[in-house]
Every structure is written in C-alpha cells, then in structure tokens.
Write the structure tokens for this entry.
Amino acid sequence: MRIAVLSDIHSNLIALEAVLAHIGSVDAVWHLGDVVGYGPEPDAVVERLAALGATGVRGNHDAAAAGGNEIDWFNPDARAAMEWTRLTISETTRAWLDGLPPRRVDADFTSVHGSPRDPIWEYVTSAALARAGLSAISTEHGLHGHTHIPIAFTQVDGRMRTLAPRAGNTVALGEGRTLLNPGSVGQPRDGDPRASFMVINTDAGTATWGRADYDIDAVAAKMHAAGLPVRLAERLRVGA
Ligand code: ZN
C-alpha cells in the first residue's frame, strides 16, 4: 500500500496539484492538518482532498478557520490571512474543517498536526521533544507537521537518530519507532521553495520524501488579487 502523507497545504491548490501529479496513483492520502490559512484557495483545496477521500487531522489554522479562538495566538500576517479565510470559505468547507479530529490512528501510525502530546500547538523541533512525543502514543510510528520542515526521528536502542531528509531520502520503518514530518506542501520553511511531501510504502516498510516544483508566481498572483499580505507571497519564493 502506498500512502501519500501531506501536511500544511495552507490553501495552496497549485502546490497540491503539483505534488499529486508528482506522486502518481496512491492507495490513500493522509493529511496532517493546516489544510487552510495563508493561501488563496481554501475551498478548492478542501474540495480536492474530499474528492480524493483524504483523511487527516486538525491543525491550528483549521481550528481557527472553523471559528476557534486559536486565531488569538496568530501573528499579524497569519491573522489577516485567517480573517480573510473565515470570510471566504463556504459552509461546506467550514463544516469539513470543524469535523477534523485532533488525532487519528491508522494501523501502525498515529497522525497529529503539532505533537502527540499537544496535537494542535506543540512544535517538535528536537530529539528530546520527539522522544516525549513517541512516549505519548501507543502505535509504532507517529506522523506530524506544523513546523513546515521535513524531519525524521528514529528511536533505536533507546537513542534518537535525527535525519533532515532531502528529496529521495528514505527511512526504513523496521529499524525502530519513528516520528516523521513530511514538510509542508503549501509553505515550505526549510529554505527549499519546492512543495514537500512523503510517501509511505507499507509493503516495503519505507517512508520516502520528495519535492515538487510548482508555479509560485501563479499562487502569488492569486494572493495579491485576494488582498492577502504581500509578505506571505514573498516567503513562498524563498521557502522560509
Ligand atoms: Zn502550518
């Protein structure tokens, strides 16, 4: 079974389409939250994921878009984009976002947006936090997003091994418990502006990272037309 693992799409339909084209056919699509926020096409992204039968979890932006007070913690640009998102999305989109659970368990994998301990807000940015996260779940593996930076933590003989995966890098799921971040589809922050994603192959026991080029100018034009903050478009060009 091949599973596309996508996180932090952030209303960037053009990046999502580029990733889906790059990956080709899969048996399932799992998303790790922040489907909306920042970008210009929230309804279209939700429609696309719903049509794919994608399953996933709620991010802080999804919770805010559905009406939650998470918006109170957003920086000014994120808040301006979220206020636009709330005014723009359809009731169908709002209800779909509101229905996302904070956690999902699918076979050997627990999915969250932030961290297993605090699925909405905690950023897993160190091996110590990854260890704490793994101790908070009962499945062999965990999947998370939120940082917008692809990373893999593998626990082998009690020690944590950290990999900052590049496109094409693979982690063997049989070597130990893992906590894996596919990076961000719609707003990468690791210095590489290409859309980031991961594919799990359960038969091979692997997780493999990939990057897809997409038309950033076209997304920026849609953001300008929508009146979204200019800085949010500019950061797409540098992937930071
Ligand atoms: Zn995000």
About this structure: The chain has a mean pLDDT of 97. The first helix runs from residue 13 to 23. Residues 8, 10, 34, 59, 61, 146, 148 surround zinc ion (CB under 6 Å). The two ends are 33 Å apart (CA to CA).
